[in-house]
Amino acid sequence: MHPVLLPLLLLAPTALARPSECIPTRIADVNSALDDVEAAFKRMDGPHVMGNISLAESALSCLETEVDAATAARFHRTRALEYFQERDTTGVQGSFTAALAADPTATLSDDIAPKGHPLLQYYAAWDGLAPAAPVPVPTGFRVKVDGRDTNLRSPNAPAIVQVFGRDGSLVFSRWLAPDESMPQMTDTGALADLPALRQVGNLPAESHAWTPGLVGAGVGTLAAVACVVGGAVTWGAYRDNTDPEKAPGILDANHAFLVSSGVVGTAAVGMGVAAFVVRW
Fold it and tell me: How far, in Å, CA of 112 to CA of 106, rounded?
């Protein structure tokens, strides 16, 4: 994660498009957050998928540069991963619709959606944008939608909308959901009813709660193997023994090793399963 994105976690809940406290960001900062989303998706880490999407959305609101079509398309493709893990098929399809409208030549990477992955079916089902309507802005303001020089926004897909004032300065930069209205803007570029960014807290730290279980499983496995070896050795000693007085003691030791191997082995399997569940 790019260092400049961390303070945005605290700024994200604000209700301003470009608050005075906004830390200026670049396209590289948006892409850094999207990299983290994809990495979290590949390791099935749902909280970090959602948290890093929120960071990318916050970075968009603090951009000082124009979003290009390729970045907009990637943002929508990556946002589809969050919708997919939430089983929101409408969100997945809408995001892919926006992504392909912005960059029709882009494809899903094999490490995100290998052959046979359900995401590929949604990606292939794109049937274009619905008829678009103009984004309402004051006269003389310039609009970009998903990196394209147009003021038309379709109602069946999300969009990254950027508005530039008469002096060319960027006054609005946001990802908007399909059902999210463009806030009213005054003639000076001030925003009257900007919806707040999604509330986010600190990203959860990478949990290592699975480590003790994994270590315990390893140690338990070694102990179980040692018990099995001990059982084999004592059984060999029992068979080779010629002293009747020693036989009961050797046999008791053999039984103890065998019982211990079962108990320790079962515990090792349990700790291993627990570590797997916690980690994945």
Answer: 14
